[in-house]
Amino acid sequence: MSKIGYYTAASGVISYQMGMDVTANNLANVNTAGFKASRPSFADLIYTKRNTENEEVQFGHGSRIDKTDLMFEQSQLRTTGRELDYAALDEGLFAIETVTGEICYTKDGAFYLSAMEDGTYQLCDSKGGFVLDYDGNRITVPFIGESTDIDFDTLTEMIGVYKFENPYGLDQISNNYFRANQSSGEAAADDTVVKKSGYLEASSTNIANEMSKVIEYQRAFQLNITMVKTHNELENIVNNLRN
Q1: How far is the C-alpha of 243 from the C-alpha of 232, rounded, in Å?
Q2: What is the mean pLDDT of residues 218-229?
């Protein structure tokens, strides 16, 4: 008995499970500042011609996740009233030197002060990474004269903002970071991007859209599971008849 039906349904099970994983990740980060949602794209597997006189009649062999697209459009800005919170508008990203020394990028502008051994303070993100300026250097927080008041005007000017030729091609990694790759191109400092203090960019996850995707993927997943079970039952019947 041919197993084409089984493998076709099995590919659907795997594809829609992966789609559910992407959607679940989007929903889990609905309150994560600067998070950019992803959208899976499905593609058909190979088509073959049926053994009939009509060569136009073909049948497929399932589906797969072709790629996962990053939805990088501007999200809403949320007022926090905290002067160390920043939002980089449009496609601007903050550069971070992570605790492992890697240079990554983020839309999450919730920054903090970190005391250094020499008595100075440097600007860090919530994961302990160092925020970088336009030259790729760590930022030593400036103070007004001899006081303990931060010079926020100067600090805002120092915080670097970077852009990519293709931000949709960035790799989305853990800790709400993005990593440059060949598809995205190299980061370029851009001091024309507006930075707003006292704001954070909200997650781009749209709950209504994601919940509709959950229903769509779940039903498609259940249909393919039923097809797998049905094929197994038919194969067992055929084997029993042969015996």
Answers
A1: 17
A2: 83
Which amino acid belongs to residue 218? Q
Residue pair 43/64 in contact by the 8 Å Cβ criterion: yes
User: Which tokens go with 175?
Assistant: 């800790």
**CB neighbours of 129 closer than 8 A, spacing ≥ 6?**
96, 97, 98, 99, 104
Q: Is the pTM of this model over 0.90?
A: no
Calpha distance 89→194 (Å, rounded): 6
Enter the tokens of residue 10: 């099995």
Report the distance separating Cα 18 and Cα 40, nearest Å.
8
pLDDT higher at 86 or 233: 86
Q: Give the integer Cα–Cα distance in Å for 188 and 93.
A: 10
Q: Are 125 and 137 in contact (CB under 8 A)?
A: no
The label of the residue with tokens 């853990």 reads 174
Tell me the Cα Rg of the chain. Answer: 25
Confidence grade of residue 1 (pLDDT, cut at 50, 70, 90): very low
pLDDT tens column, 111-125: 999 999 988 999 999
**E strands present in the chain:** 38-44, 47-49, 58-60, 63-70, 77-79, 85-88, 93-97, 103-106, 109-115, 121-125, 130-131, 161-163, 171-172, 178-179, 188-189, 195-197, 199-201
Residue 125 pairs in a beta bridge with 111
Question: Residue 93 CB: number of other CB atoms within 10 A?
Answer: 27
Mean per-residue pLDDT, 40-59: 59
